[in-house]
């Protein structure tokens, strides 16, 4: 347990408090002087717990510091304390969460940009109190407060212990492979609304769309939550007979879309006219 030189109890009027960029517990009430005192103490608590979490995960630098929280716009730290410990009480654990815009692969390997993805960013329970259900208490409080469900959370580089925790308490096992450090579980993209979290409030509705597909180039972003999208596109295709062939002719992006070098042999054969498809790919028919 993590004890401090000061009494933590005025900061923890309840066992779990929530702290955002103002570095004050959500329950805090006080004047300016008390406010400065509280932010200074809370900074110390966050830095200590962040360092212990980094040590536990063998990270060179902490993921969680007071400075980082102060600079963040959409991160929240939940802190768990035992106010009956010793003379000053003790802090037991930390859970940092936030939302991010991420490019993610779905189950079919399609890339999607998901806005406001709920992310589990850092999680730590002091070694002396692990495996006693306290992590679950902290996590459940966070889920209820954020109105998130576990399956809709992405997890930033989870440790073996956290993987075990998610398996044990929420039955999360099967992951969807990603190209980044985030772990997603099967079911993340499920349900009609495709909403990554029930608390998404961005202007783009559920904020999820397929990227870089020919359809996106033709029709703009395809919002997956719209049940009528397929029908809308079908109607559009029927009304525009050439469109289906245009879709296949649209130049791809990335290295496949790069301009090919002119084939000088083809130029000689065709007297400087545009190379044929065969010549373009290096073959002379
Ligand atoms: C995105 C990230 O934050 S990744 C980093 C996650 N944090 C860490 O790895 C730091 C060290 N670990 C911890 O702080 C804690 O173990 C936490 C936060 C992962 C879980 O908190 P706890 O209070 O221990 O969880 P709780 O008691 O509710 O659940 C216990 C389950 O968690 C997992 N777990 C917890 N401790 C361990 C451990 N030492 N070894 C293996 N699994 C563990 C197990 O599944 C365990 O169930 P079991 O005892 O039946 O095997």
UniProtKB/TrEMBL annotation:
Residues at the site labelled Crucial for catalytic activity: 57
Reaction it catalyzes: L-lysyl-[alpha-tubulin] + acetyl-CoA = N(6)-acetyl-L-lysyl-[alpha-tubulin] + CoA + H(+)
Entry-linked InterPro entries: Atat, GNAT_ATAT
Binding positions for acetyl-CoA per the UniProt entry: 123-136, 159-168
Keyword match Membrane: no
UniProt keyword list: Acyltransferase, Receptor, Transferase
Source organism, top-level taxon: Eukaryota
Enzyme Commission code: 2.3.1.108
N-acetyltransferase domain location: 2-189
A single GO cellular-component term on record: microtubule
Family matches, as Pfam families: Acetyltransf_16
GO terms of biological process kind: neuron development; regulation of microtubule cytoskeleton organization
PROSITE patterns from the UniProt entry: GNAT_ATAT
GO terms for MF: tubulin N-acetyltransferase activity
Keyword Cell membrane assigned: no
Role description: Specifically acetylates 'Lys-40' in alpha-tubulin on the lumenal side of microtubules. Promotes microtubule destabilization and accelerates microtubule dynamics; this activity may be independent of acetylation activity. Acetylates alpha-tubulin with a slow enzymatic rate, due to a catalytic site that is not optimized for acetyl transfer. Enters the microtubule through each end and diffuses quickly throughout the lumen of microtubules.
HAMAP family: mec17
Family of the protein in this entry: Belongs to the acetyltransferase ATAT1 family.
Name of the protein in question: Alpha-tubulin N-acetyltransferase
């Amino acid at each position: 347990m993590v004890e401090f030189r000061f009494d933590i109890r005025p900061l923890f009027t309840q066992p779990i408090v929530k702290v955002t960029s103002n570095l004050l517990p959500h329950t805090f009430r006080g004047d300016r002087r008390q406010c400065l005192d509280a932010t200074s103490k809370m900074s110390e608590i966050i830095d200590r717990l962040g360092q212990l979490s980094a040590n536990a995960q063998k990270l060179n630098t902490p993921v969680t510091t007071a400075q980082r929280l102060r600079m963040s716009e959409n991160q929240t730290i939940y802190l768990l304390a035992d106010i009956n410990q010793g003379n000053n009480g003790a802090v037991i654990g930390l859970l940092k969460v936030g939302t991010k815009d991420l490019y993610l692969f779905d189950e079919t390997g399609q890339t999607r940009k998901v806005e406001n993805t709920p992310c589990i960013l850092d999680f730590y329970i002091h070694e002396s109190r692990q495996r006693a259900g306290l992590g679950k208490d902290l996590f459940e409080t966070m889920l209820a407060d954020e109105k998130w469900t576990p399956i809709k959370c992405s997890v930033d580089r989870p440790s073996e212990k956290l993987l075990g925790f998610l398996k044990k308490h929420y039955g999360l096992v099967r992951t969807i492979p990603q190209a980044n450090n985030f772990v997603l579980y099967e079911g993340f993209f499920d349900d009609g609304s495709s909403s990554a979290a029930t608390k998404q409030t961005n202007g783009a509705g559920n904020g999820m769309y397929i990227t870089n597909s020919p359809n996106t180039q033709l029709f703009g972003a395809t919002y997956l939550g719209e049940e009528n999208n397929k029908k809308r596109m079908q109607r559009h295709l029927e009304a525009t007979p050439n469109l289906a062939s245009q879709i296949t002719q649209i130049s791809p992006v990335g290295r496949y879309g790069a301009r090919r070098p002119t084939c000088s042999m083809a130029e000689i054969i065709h007297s400087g006219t545009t190379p044929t498809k065969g010549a373009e790919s290096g073959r002379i028919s």
